[in-house]
Amino acid sequence: MTTAVLEKPILSLRGLTIVAPGGTTLVENASFDIGAGEIVLLVGPSGSGKSTIINLLSGLPDAKAGGWRVTGTLDCGGRHLDLSRERSDVGGLVFQDNALFDDLTAGENLRIAADHAPATDGELRTLATSLLPDVAADKPVSSCSGGQQQRVAIARTLLANRPILFFDEPNSGLDIRSSRALAGMVRDICKRMGKPAVIVAHHVEDLLPEADRVLLLDTRNRCLRAVEPSLDAIERELLALDPSASRVSDGPATAEPSAAPWEGRLPSASRGHWFSRYFLEYFWVLCASPLMLMYVAIGGMIVGFVEIWFGFNYHSFGGYLKSLLHDETLVGLGLIQVTVAVPLITGILVVARNNAIIAADLGNRVLSSQFRAMANLRIPAMAYLIGSVLLNMVFASVVLMAVSMSTAAWTSLQTWHLLFPGQSSELFRENFFRVFLNGGPHVTMDLVWVLVKTVTSSVVAGLAAIVIGLRKKDSVVAINYAIAESIIAGVSITLFVHAIVGIFQF
Ligand SMILES: Nc1ncnc2c1ncn2[C@@H]1O[C@H](COP(=O)(O)OP(=O)(O)OP(=O)(O)O)[C@@H](O)[C@H]1O
What we know:
- The protein has 15 helices and 10 strands.
- The protein has 506 residues and is an alpha/beta fold.
- It has 2 domains: 9-90 and 162-254, Rossmann fold (3-Layer(aba) Sandwich), CATH 3.40.50.300; 271-505, no CATH class.
- The strands form 2 sheets. A 6-stranded mixed β-sheet has the order 6-7-8-3-9-10, sandwiched between helices. The chain has a 4-stranded antiparallel β-sheet with strand order 2-1-4-5, with no helix packed on it.
- Bound molecules: adenosine-5'-triphosphate.
């Protein structure tokens, strides 16, 4: 472990130990100092813990959530933090994927950071906006180029006004010229602000000319140590840690990497396999998840209770004729429950929930370019995803209807027992299901109509959710709108289909 000795460090970290949830120690008792305006490159094998360290120092909750163990102390700006108890907030982090707020304009991304910063002076704002001469403040970030988005992300982090800047692989995916321009920009920022920057990078060549120091995360000794800031030296050190890596830090962090864990793990599979893979994924979420089953079961129970309770207690002839008209009332309530009430309520419940899921699922796939990736990889997205969704909407409508019908009938029976204690369940069954037990062609037709309206409303509502979900999405907010739209469209379609079929039915 090496501790750089600086006259006036901005940040002093002592005894940093990080243990990952699985029990792997990433660093042990590491210490380092960073001085004003310094640029430090943090290098190390893939998976060694570089991002974890800068996330931790930037105060990101997930760096310490879920079983991570961290110890060490940090001194920065006159504050002393015990990292085992306190969260560090000394770092402003530029995320690898920029993590811009895509529902805000470029200007708003900057303003919201400034508005939540401890203090931002005019000079800082000038510096931040000077990075964006070619970006209009009212430009949506989704229409900025990749380079512009990165500069918006850097400017936003500057305005957060934290003592140290952290960059997580800022030059991955940049060409040499852009990568050098980025390094120059970071140098300029550090000089003008007098703040240090720590850059996590795999491709260090273009960043090295601007770096003051290089720190290596040594996976063998689990320490952070200084390395000569030259490409040869860095390459040598990384190869020593991971002899199988052919290029700088592209190999995994394990001491003896091999392809063994992958052996036999990539068997080829037919299209049928992939269709069923997606089909089962949607089957679970749209049809068979315990939450869904519980949801429609409870829906059915409420219908079953309400129908019998109010059907008898608010009979048009009052309590006087309740017993006299008992049998015929039960017949009517049974017919309405099976052919109208349960299909309608269950249809609405299923479509509302599933349309939200479909719009969210497809919307996220659109936003994260998954359909483009599928097209590029010649994966038939329409067959796998859309086909699976529609088939599952049909399944869900029938299966869940059956669940809901059962719980509705059971609850009706229990409610009837409450109202007519001592009567036999047989009496209930004979009358409640009399129309269906007697059989006949009109009964079959009634049940066919139930099936028609159930499946039709589910498929048409599902199609609406698919169309809405597949529309272009620029932001998370667009997905939220799509979810709301698809619920409204789905429920309206269900009401409409049930009303129209009801007219034909009776
Ligand atoms: N949520 C998590 N739960 C368990 N282990 C995790 C979690 N997140 C990361 N890790 C593990 O912690 C280690 C360090 O991850 P980290 O992302 O910090 O590495 P890195 O050096 O930045 O890697 P790379 O250079 O490939 O981005 C890895 O071995 C990773 O598998």
